[in-house]
Amino acid sequence: MVADDALLMAYVDGELSSQQNQELERLIDASPDLAQRVSRLMASCLPYEEAFARQNLPPVPESLKLSIAALAAQHSAARPAQQTVPTSGVNSADKADSVFSRLFAFFQPKFAWPALTFVAGAACYALVLQVGAFSGALKPGFDTAAPAVAQTSPWVQQAAAYQHLYTRETVAYGAQPPEAVTQTLADIRQIDGLALRVPDLSSAGLTFKRVQRLRFNNKALIQLVYLPANGAPVALCVMKEPKPDQSIAQQSVAQMNVVTWRQSELGYALIGEPEGVDLNAVARLVADRSAAQLFAGVPAPMWIAAIQR
């Protein structure tokens, strides 16, 4: 049993079987770090619904009520067709159809919010994805087979919006144990067909924290999360893109700074907050393949990521 965040949250929310509870509790008894993570998750189980109900809010326009009710009905009708969320992050990529669906499957609150609130939040999330503006410029020294595109890929929009929800505390408390990272990398290589290497970005002041297998349009979207000494986390996302190579370009997507490029039919997106790490310098470190590599015991080519042949 791998005690990742999804499993711990399911334990705190009382969603595990008796056998799973017993197995996990044995791990908790043997690991002070694991016990501390569970304690912090339990501390976050607050009466959010009651707090929300006490807010003095203006009346909701009738037209908005009708629109949201229609969206809620559509969401409820589609729910039976959805697959059950797994308790292990290792297989989560096979169960979700997009970053958006996995996000809301993973972060299920113990105290359910009203359907009106959930759908309104989902609608706001969808609006955020529509406002990413391109402001990139080509950087010298990186050979290309095609000029930079003035359009943000849909998967980059989703990944940036997902990363926007991260906080420093979320990542600091959710570092994966090495064995979980090794298992996830093996799944990425064997199931997703990508021989991913984790770059060591410590020279840029970034500490590796976790790797996640996400899905976008039923394709693998890999997220590597790093934490700087100060400030918000940074994510390096990788997805297969069978298109010509693309030079490094900077964009603004979902209120996040995003540096993108494409090499060997793989798309890369380095995502962070505007007032944070110098993403262009970090992207150069990764794109030039000059960064060392973590978890070198997992066999893979020298590329940061390469299609498994």
Identify the strand order in the major beta sheet.
Answer: 1-6-7-8-5-4-3
**Record field, number of beta strands:** 9
CATH class of the domain at 154-294: Alpha Beta
Number of helices: 11
Structural class: alpha+beta
Main pleated-sheet profile: 7 strands, antiparallel
CATH topology-level name of the domain at 154-294: Phosphorylase Kinase, domain 1
Mean pLDDT: 74
Q: Tell me the distance between the termini.
A: 31 Å
The helix/strand order is HHHHHHHEHHHEEEEEEEHE
Rg over alpha carbons: 20 Å
Please state the second-level CATH architecture of the domain at 154-294.
Answer: 2-Layer Sandwich
Which regions contain 5 or more consecutive residues with pLDDT less than 50? 85-150, 299-309
| Shape descriptor | globular
Percentage of helical residues?
25-40%
**What's the name of the CATH homologous superfamily of the domain at 154-294?**
MucB/RseB, C-terminal domain
Indicate the proportion of strand residues: 15-25%
Protein name: Anti-sigma factor
Organism: Pseudomonas fluorescens
